[in-house]
Amino acid sequence: MMNKPIVAIVGRPNVGKSTLFNRLVGGRTAIVEDTPGVTRDRIYRDAEWLGRVFTLVDTGGINFSGRDDSIALQVKKQAEIAIREADVILFLVDGKSGLSADDEDLAALLRKTQKPVILVVNKIENFKKVEEFYEFYRLGLGDPIPVSAAHGLNIGDLLDRVVDNLSSQGFEEQEHEAVKIAVVGRPNVGKSSLVNAILGQERVIISEIPGTTRDAVDTPFARGQQRYILIDTAGMRKKGQIEDNTERYSVIRALKAIDRCDVAVVVIDGTMGVTEQDKKIAGYVHESGKGIVLAVNKWDLVEKDEKTMQRYERVLREELAFIQYAPAIFVSAVTRQRVLKMIDLVDFVAEQHAQRVRTSVLNEVVSEAVQLTPPPSEKGKRLKVFYCAQAGVRPPHFVLFVNDPELLHFSYQRYLENVLRKNFGFEGTPIRFTVKRREEGRG
Prior knowledge:
6-stranded mixed β-sheet; alpha/beta
C-alpha cells in the first residue's frame, strides 16, 4: 500500500471541509455546495507542501444530534474510520456561526485519540479580530489556526503546521506503480457493494436509494507487492434524468474518474441485462482508451442452468460488439463470488494495456499479414504498408507508414488490429492507429 502519511479533515456539516480540501489539493475535487451533507464518503487525494507528500482525506460532516437516518449514521461511521486511519487530523470549525454542541462533542472524541489534532477555524477574514475565534480555545485542543478556505488566507501557515506534525519516518514511496481502477456503471448496479467486497470493509456508503455515491472516491489498497487505487464513482444516468446540480457534478466526476484510471470495471446488473446506458458508459471507456473489464454483478440473483453463463456472454458480445476485446466475468458483490478473480483479470488487462512490442517483431507480423491478405485496390491504386512502429502504451498506439493514407479502409485497419491481437494479445484494451504518408524508397 502507499506508505504516505494520511491527513484527515473532519468537522460537522457545512463548515467548509470540501472547500479546504480543494484548496489544499489545488483543484475542485470534492463537490462544493451550500447544502449541508453534500460530501458523504471519504475522498482521497495527494497533496504536497515543502517537498512533503501526504494523502488528504475529505469526510462527510459528523452530526451528533438531530438526524438519525441510516445515511447520517453511515456518514458518521465513515468519518470515524478516517480518524482511525489518519496520522494527523484537521478539525475544522466555522468561525462565522461560532462554537456549537456538535463541535464540543467531536472535540471530546478527538481528545481521546493519541494523534496530532490541529484545530482550524474557517471563514475568518480579519485575523486581527481574535474574538472571532477566541471561544474555540474552550475545545481544549490548543491554539486554533484561523483560515479562509474560500479565499486562500493563511493556508500556508496551516500547511506548515501539518508538515511539522507529520512523522519523519516510515512514509517512503514504494517502487511499484499503483494500478488505478475506476468502478463505473448505471445507478444501483452494485458498484459500491463491489468496492466494499474488494476491500473487505465498508469504505463506501451503501444504500438501496439509487445515487447514494455522489463523489468519485479514491481508496488505496494492496495485494502482495501490487498497489492499487480504487475509484468508486456515482452512477451515470441519462442526461434527461439528471435532476440537480449536485448530481450533474457527480456524472462529470465519474467521467473524469474514467479519464484518469488505467482500467475501468464496467458493472452491469445481471438481473436486467445490457441497457442503452450500459452501452454509452462502455463506449466512453472505449473512446477514452482505457482498459476494460466487464463485471456482470448480482449473479447470485440470476436463475441459472448449466448454459446460462454462455448464453449471457453471447448476448454481451452482441450488445457490446464494439468492445469484443473486453473480457467479462460474472460476480456477486454480496457473496464475493469471483471478486478476487476479477482483480486478477484487472491485473492482466493492466499489463496488456501497458504492453510494448519490439519493432522488429512487430514489422515481421505486419509484413506477413499484408502478404497473406493484400489490401484491396481502389481506382487502380493499391495501399502499400512500408513500416509499423509502436508510438505509445496505455492504450497501445501504432503508427503505420503507407504510400497513401486515404487508401487504408477501416475494414483493412480492423484486419490489422485483429492480427495484432492474435499475435500479441492486447486483451481488454483498445488499440489506436495513426496513419502517415511516406514516399516509396525512403529509408
